[in-house]
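Example record

The entry below shows one chain as it appears in the dataset: sequence first, then structure tokens.
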Amino acid sequence: MKLRLKFNLVLLAVFLAGFGASGYISYVLLQNNARADVIRNAELMLETALAIRGYTIDQIKPQLELQLMRTFLPQSVPAYAATETLNAIRKKYPDYAYKEATLNPTNPRNRVADWEADIVYEFRNGHKTQEIVGERDTPTGPSLYIARPIQIKNKDCLVCHSQPEAAPEAMLKLYGDANGFGWQHNEIVGAQVVSVPMSLPIGNARRAFYVFMSSLFIVFVVLFAVLNIMLSRMIIAPISTMSKAADEISIGNFDIPEFAGAGKDEIAVLGSSFNRMRRSLQKALQMIES
């Protein structure tokens, strides 16, 4: 097996190992970063909903107390305000979703879907954390969701949700008396669920992965070519020249020129030694012939 082939086989083995390791590590990191970006977007959307709720309770509802005594305004309900505001965002970003998924809601649009009901019951059954993060398939691709429990901590909420008799008449006219009642203090009645699509960040991560791996491959090809050129000019060519010279000298032909290597590297030192050996052998043969 020739030196060039051995060198290229070793170089190829090192490249394949490095290429595989780099590909695996970069793919995992890019996918994790993409998922982290999705989670940050979902958390930002959820915190926005909480901010709207707080703003409605602290600054909007107190300004409407007199009017609320005469009529029911759904706009004064924190859940309604948060849902309406984030639904406006969905007009531009339809794949993003926010829902106050409730087992027994006053407003029918808040009724849980099957997969949301599983989340609510997980909270009701004593889930260890106050937040659940998961993924689900949708018609538009994979989607990540973050859910937090809706717990009745404020007893004022029970005015509208304990018994129909205690609820405002205007609310009963709007939503009826069949749903949204029977809630208990500290009961978990639903979950705030934010869904964010993963297709775009995951697609960006894959494109970045392909670009990185293509660039790495191009770098290897260039490096492979440069190293082979250097190997040919600096090692293989000088050694081949000395090998041919040695063959000629072995049959008594001293007319070939001396090795013209210059410098202080190992090949130049070997060439100088070869030239001294050639001159010494030539003088020894001349002495024998004389």
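Notes for this example: The longest strand covers residues 141-151. The mean pLDDT is 85.
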